[in-house]
Write a structure and sequence with these properties.
Blueprint (H helix, E strand, L loop, with lengths): L1 E10 L2 E11 L4 E5 L6 H9 L6 E6 L2 E2 L5 H8 L2 E4 L11 H11 L5 H14 L15 H13 L5 E5 L7 H16 L3 E5 L3 H7 L2 E6 L2 E7 H5 L4 H6 L1 H12 L2
Parallel strand pairs: 3-8, 3-9, 6-7, 7-8
Antiparallel strand pairs: 1-2, 1-4, 4-5, 9-10
């Protein structure tokens, strides 16, 4: 479980997050939405402990990560992986070595088991047979799936996704969303930042809407879609309009 409690974050005199509280249950897919610059990706950094907060606490499985010693914090981080918006793949390494990279350096796994783990992860993301290829030989969707395979290699309890489908065509976007749903079925906790509303609704067990560093609404997807909050209604207006158009043309 992830629990963010009354978190404030100020950088260079500017409020980035203000009194943010958010609870993410184990094994669920939680989606954070909001305009550009609202603080969505900053929340992911806070969960990883990469941004030092000014007030509040961030508890992961009951432990406040900002009170842990460095060794204990490292143990917590080993159970968390992140898929970056730009994938952050190593261009000089082939697919197999990209997937193996963090696992090889952060565990005492044998070479045989490492190779088997890589093949298992590539199979999970439908990239079997690409082991010898390099990132520049992959399509955008394949690169994203490779980044997910690498994130999965350490078998984390929690995976953070920053804009996982941005820049992808509808077919590849669906493939990524299907993978995230497979992770939920396997019991993985996923936290996703996106600005693509249809994606959020299709995969989110819970939605959190943030504006100017403050949480405007948070709850189960159905509850948020029925929110009376003016900003939330305006934010989802496009989807509601699309749904109306579809119904009128059926």
């Amino acid at each position: 479980m992830i629990e963010i409690i009354n978190v404030d974050l100020n950088i260079d005199g500017r409020d980035i997050l203000k009194d943010v509280s958010l609870k993410i249950d184990k094994g669920t897919t939680s989606v954070i939405l909001g305009p550009s610059g609202a603080g969505k990706s900053t929340i992911l950094k806070v969960i990883l402990g990469l941004e030092k907060i000014n007030a509040g606490s961030v508890n992961i499985n009951g432990k406040n990560i900002f009170e842990l010693k460095s060794d204990d914090l490292l143990k917590v981080r080993r159970n968390i992986s992140m898929v970056f918006q730009a994938n952050a793949l190593f261009d000089s390494l082939n697919v197999e070595d990209n997937v193996a990279y963090f696992l090889a350096y952060n565990s005492d796994i044998s070479k045989k088991d490492l190779r088997e783990r890589v093949r298992e992860m590539l199979s999970f993301v439908n990239l079997s047979g690409t082991e010898s290829l390099y990132p520049d030989q992959l399509s955008g969707g394949m690169k994203k799936r490779l980044a997910i395979a690498r994130a999965l290699a350490t078998r984390p309890e929690i995976i953070l996704f920053d804009e996982p489908t941005t820049g992808l065509d509808p077919i590849n976007s669906k493939a990524i969303l299907d993978l995230i749903n497979k992770l939920r079925a396997a019991g993985t906790t996923s936290v996703i930042v996106t600005h693509i509303l249809n994606d959020a609704i299709s995969i989110g067990d819970a939605l959190t809407v943030i504006k100017d560093g403050r949480i405007v609404a948070s709850g189960k997807t159905r509850e948020i879609l029925q929110s009376k909050n003016v900003f939330v209604q305006e934010f989802f207006y496009e989807i509601f309009q699309d749904a109306t158009l579809i119904q009128n043309n059926q």
